[in-house]
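Discussion board: Methods & Data

I've been asked by a reviewer to show the raw model output for two of the constructs in my manuscript, not just the figures. I'm not sure how much to include, so I'm pasting the format here to get opinions. Each protein appears as its amino acid sequence followed by a line of discrete structure tokens. Is this the kind of thing reviewers expect to see in a supplement, or should I convert it first? Here is construct A:
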Amino acid sequence: MCAHTLVLALFLSAVPARAQKAADVVLQNCGSCAWSAAIDRSLLYSQNAFAGMRPGRLLTKSGECAEDCADVLNFRRSNFDLEGNSIAAISDGALSGMPRLKSLFLGNNPIAGLPPSALAGNTALETIEVGGTALGCVPAVGIPVTASILGDGPGGRVPRCPEACSPGTVYNASAAACVACPAGLQPLAPDTVGGVMGMCVPAGWDAIFLTVCGSCAFWRTKPGSVLVDESSSVLQYWAESSSVLVRTGNCAHDCIRGLGGGWGDLDGGRAERLDLSMRSISEISDGALSGLPLVKEIYLLYNPIAGLSPSAFTGNTALQKLAIYRSALSCVPAGGIPATALISLPRCPEACAPGTVYNSSAAACVACPAGLQPLAPGTVGGSLGMCVPAGWDATWLDVCGSCAFWRTKTGSVLVRTGNCTDDCAGREELGPVNYKKVRGVLDLRGRGIAAVSPGVFEGLTGLRELWIGYNNLGCVPGVACNVGVDNQSALHLQTHPRCPSNCIVGTFYDSAGACLPCQKGLTTMGVGAAGAKSCVDPATLLSASSSVTATPGLPVPTAATPAAPNSTPMNIAPSVSKHFVSFTVTLPYTKSEFDTDKQKKFKTAVSSAAEVPAVNVDIVDIIEKRRREGSIDVLTKVLSGART
């Protein structure tokens, strides 16, 4: 999905249902008729793993073509092809009254139901394809009994709806009958027939449709607890606001595989696989993926899952493969999964209790360090790097071993949490040469990074490749000489050079290839920022709490902790007054310029950012830097709690 598509999708997701007007999109012409689709926000969906979130569309027909609409020659095949056009609803008459039409393809559209006479009068129809929709049956009034209806049902077929089906019902596959929704629920598409039982939802249902499996539907709510990023112009992984996976309907008896079109479906989506890859899922609700005894494969690739319920996959007794890749998990709770099943991560020990994270070095679940908590409370399996202070507010990018990488909201500075000097070896990624896999890769391409906090890339002894192109950086600081930076050039048409040795906070990378000091009185939010425009007023920087450096073994402080140019590693102290945080701030002033008024503003900014009284902030010392004229180190001490 291109970056502009993502922007459109996110914009649409912020607009109330049916609030925006959009011109009809012409989809197909056949004879004297034209078919168009306008946005219908009664359904938002993310059906294809690469397509992101889209609003559904209402299909309409203009013109009269009973005599001249036959098969249409297009780039794929000779037929009337409306596949993959985001069609969620079909107006009366849009697909009826075409007696010369022989084949109709409606697959890979989030169609939740059809009018009872949707296909009436198409007396020459030979093939109807509805795979990848939410239809459990197809109303076949007025079409030949010999017509084949192809889709996601048993044997690749979809049954005809019984003639007795009335509008406002859904299809019960077990009873082979149309039924009313259970009490308190209603069809997502009122006045239609044929939708699966999982399309029975409460009034005012507000979730994004993902896929259907048997009689169930899978959705994601808006949003989840993990803020993640999909700003990449190279690979699109997840949307800016993540969400919770939920399931509607009862499908223990008939959920064998989800709709086609998922991750790497070379088999055309016909494998017995439930594929929920790249759907912005950060949390999985209880029961969403358990109790599926017929499913053999579950794919959850490229979702920012920070933890799982201990019983997340119980009852999946036929499961042969569970693929979880590029998440924030370090182990998977495997209770109820066959011992022979292949899982892409280690199985969590049985003793893992909710609220713990996985220490891969010790192969055990442990509590977070004092003062920290799992980003996903009440879960197991998250990486140690997902231990954060309460109120953590940063954008998650990736994990590497026991570390997590984040982008600050203000300043877009790359920061790191956790301690991964021993186990951050990168992932295995596809390289450009014959798509061979490249080991030891940390992939941070296209994540909107504008600067790097000092020390982020230090001590990662197992890393071999850093892919960090397509960001807003001028240069990349602090990467070991034996680590390649964007070396796989075929994948990186836009790259960033290594920073010269003189690049520090308070300098910017110039187009000439050198780091230059900011104008007097200004500094930068991190290292490697591009151009003089990245220089800002230090007081603004401190109050914004943007640039921080990770302490080994502890996460970067929250946005409420003072962030400063060129700050040294910080310690996080418990909230009692005898504990404190000490750090050094480099500011672009002389000692005489940093007068009483500026010191007062400095202490006020620090206290506001740290959420402590101003009297808790002490300027321990002010030291003029010899190597850099007009620059000082301010040794600062912040006491936690109330001052005594």
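Construct B, same format:
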Amino acid sequence: MSIRIDDIILDDDATKAAISGTSGNLRLGGNGVDGDALLFPSDGDLNDDNSATFHLDGNGGNLWMGGNGKDGDLVISPSEASNNHDVNTATFHFDGNGGNLWMGGNGKDGDLVIFPSDASSNHDINTATFHFDGNGGNLWMGGNGKDGDLVIFPGDASSNHDINTATFHFDGNGGNLWMGGNGKDGDLVIFPGDASSNHDINTATFHFDGNGGNLWMGGNGKDGDLVIFPSNASSNHDINTATFHFDGNGGNLWMGGNGKDGDLVIFPSDAIDNHDINTATFHFDGNGGNLWMGGNGKDGDLVIFPSDASSNHDINTATFHFDGNGGNLWMGGNGKDGDLVIFPSDASDNHDINTATFHFDGNGGNLWMGGNGKDGDLVIFPSDASDNHDINTATFHFDGNGGNLWMGGNGTDGDIVLFPGSATNNHDTSQATIHMDANAGDITLSNADCAEDFTIDETAIAVPGSVMAIGKAGLLQASNKAYDKRVVGIISGAGDYKPGLVLDKQIGMENRSPIALMGKVYCLVTAEHNPIEVGDLLTSSDLPGHAMKAGDSQKAFGAVIGKALAPLDKGMGLIPVLVALQ
């Protein structure tokens, strides 16, 4: 059966409703009347609007479809479709049961384009504020004076317009992505194409962990790299032009290059400007090749712990400690040998200590330099040197090949100053015991005499200040004869006078003592026969180890040991003597 309708007027007033075959339009409602079209299934009740499966609502401007046991789909086919009931050939399909919208395909570009109310044309895609691009696979939002946000709420949100309760927020104006919060863990998890499940987090190759605050990349056979390019890079897939590269396989961080200065700058929490490099407490300087740490009220320390340390914040258990405040480098200890070992570029093994050219030995307390074909020199320059590789301008030069020490010159006074352990200031030359003064050409010894070590007879009683004579075996004994021509001198070291220079020092030899050859020394003396006055010549006496006044000049010839520098009226004592063997 067929019905042809040319024109049907449903009311005397043709403006209320009409079906026009000529114009091909169906016009319903208007003029104070709600124009609805309701279609009912065969088992529906024409008087019950709720039993309709298709409802065009003129007042509400809505289209209600399906329900009441029916699948409400809207399926639109292109003009060249051969069958408008074959859903696979449709280019637009609202699927009520599946809750999906299918668009495009079958040679058509499925775009969803939404315009703001002030758009002058709803076909000019550049003025749209929302554009799902089927061919490009892109979603374009905002622009044209609109803020393109994508805001997603959890099922328990009380309002889907309160942005603070959203768990997912793409912020077009701010250029930010906000995820999680409000009791939800905001993770971003991306899987490779060969993942068997996109909900098994262990197989993901990219995981932003909101709760843990971590970014996990790579693994599962993938190389987790983070590569960032400058704005002028011609390709964002040419890793050699990147200025920032976290290399997951190599475990390296590459920064800078390609005309960029690769710096890593870290600021304390109280810094007011995180772009003012002078307030940073940690600065890796790519151009300068320096690491700057501390300052601005912070102590810049570098502390490294061994694997068996129970705490990596207990500085006493560290095996490596750069101390910014103290200006010290502490290495080793805690059962570790703190060595600093440097190898030349042609070394084949940087763990073979025998091929090193520079070795600070913590256990041995030694510094080993040179060897292995290298000249081990230590060269130090003054602050005003214009070139710290011009050896002629150095003020301090240990020459490994020549075996020489060069000091001073170039306007600098090259002195060697040695201090005793009791000195309180190692820059006060008056406290030094030995001072080689290059400008004056002097060697200053603060101690009193020049001595030479002799072997003492093991049966002899000999203490500092004793007068000694040569025995038959060539060993020294305490003198016990007046005017003894075998007398050799006085054992140095008694009283306040110590030897300034000791000759023939044989390390490890026993029963040896320094005998004063010249200078001042304290001597044991006796005044039992004659009182001693300042300036008297002294010789050996019958009292073992003691000197006396040389009253007989003929007997004294060849037996004088020195001249008294202090008197002794009677008895025995210890007086200073100027050594002068005659």
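Answer (T.O., handling editor elsewhere):
This is acceptable in a supplement if you add a one-line summary per construct. For B, something like: The mean pLDDT is 85.
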